[in-house]
Amino acid sequence: MIESCMSSIKPMLGFLRDLKNDKADEQMLREILNHPDYDFEFRRYEIESKEPFIKYFMQLSTINETDIPEIDTKRKTILRDKHKKWLSAYENLEHYEMLYDKIKSSITDDTLEGINARVKRGLPGNTAIDDVRIISTMSIGPSFGYVFDGALHFDLMGFEDDSLDTLPSLIAHETHHLAMWKYVSAFIENLTLEERYIFQFTGEGLAIKFCNNAQGAISKAIDADCPINEGLDAFSIAYLNERFDEDFEVFEDTLDSIRAGKMDKDTVFKQFEEYWWNPYTDEQSRDEEPLLKQSRMYTFGNDLFGAIYDAHGNEKLFECVRNPLQAVEYFKQIIEKR
Fold it and tell me: What strands, in cross-sheet order, belong to the sheet with 151-155?
């Protein structure tokens, strides 16, 4: 069963309307930020004090971006990073009120049944999907969609226009993460560093394969009747698919280095952070806004494990998920035949 939780949104929209009419009530704001859905967000972003957020929202319409305080946490610039989105919501309340109503009415039983089917095909046979909470807020953080503490979240302000066509793929994608995490938790701690390195590509790779109908450089879209790369950024996917050969070379070189003892866990983690999760194109300066909405983790993971599904089916795919070294051998065979 999938449960939708959106009850913090109307009060927050009401606060923003009061702020616009010079009637903002600090006590009302405190009650909103104490809502269970916002408590969920503060825990996810590891933020202990809500006081900076109280001060920020009370002067949202007048504060200069350079005057927005940093938070005493590793999420120091979380308020500043989201300021443009909050100003847009403040200035376009009717749009977000309409968007809330559309989302609320679009999550029907039929929609949830279709989402359930997408997720199940990307799991081992006969895997049951537990109860899932879909939490939606006007988010305090930068992530449009994420999973945390057994639930999935999406940000009302993450929808750039009125189209909700991608909402089912978003919900399916995050639900797949939840189901996969439960599945892999039984064996993931026993993986070697080499196996863990390969395994990391299953999460986003399989989620976009089965839930976003992703087309890779090697892996094929599996739904002829659905849009290709549904809910994914077209520029990002095309850009990254063109760099498959480069990514495969990095992947193989890293496996060789791990086997030779030249890379430890910290070095591998650093590579993931700087290369596989990198949101910048090769041409960009780090001073610019990142152009990539997805990263190499998505596209290479889709090719690596998605191609195994294309060639050998669900059972062999999840045999390779459990035995990542086997995945590499199957994938090399597929590469040689292309």
Answer: 2-5, 132-137, 151-155, 145-148
What pTM, to 2 d.p., does this model score?
Answer: 0.79
SS (H, E, C) 139-173: CCCCCCEEEECCEEEEEHHHCCCCCCCCHHHHHHH
Using alpha carbons, list the distances in angstroms from residue 49 to 46, 68, 116, 139, 293.
10, 16, 37, 16, 30
Lowest mean pLDDT among 11-15, 150-154, 259-263, 271-275: 150-154
- H-helix or E-strand containing 250? helix 244-259
Q: Give the containing element (helix H, strand E) for 44.
A: helix 36-44
Rg of the chain on CA atoms, in Å:
21
Helix ranges restricted to H, 191-231? 193-199, 202-211
Q: Are 209 and 305 in contact (CB under 8 A)?
A: yes
- Pick from 328, 285, 325, 326: which is nearest to 304 by CA? 328
Q: What is the pLDDT of residue 112?
A: 83
Mean pLDDT of 220-230: 93
Separation CA 1–CA 129 (nearest Å) = 8
Which amino acid type is present at position 255? L
- The Cα–Cα gap between 255 and 327 comes to 13
CA gap 308, 198 in Å, rounded: 14
Contacts of 281 (CB under 8 A, 6+ apart): 239, 291, 292
On the question of pLDDT at 120 being above 60, the answer is yes
To the nearest 10°, report the CA torsion of 45, 30, 52, 289. 50
Which tokens hold the place of 79?
Answer: 């308020």
Other CB atoms within 10 Å distance of the CB of residue 76: 12
Residue 69: count other Cβ atoms within 10 Å of its Cβ.
13
Written as one letter, the residue type at 222 is: I
Closest CA to 137 of 118, 120, 151: 151
Residue 338: alpha-carbon gap to chain centroid: 31
Contacts (Cβ under 8 Å, ≥6 apart) of 58: 19, 24, 26, 29
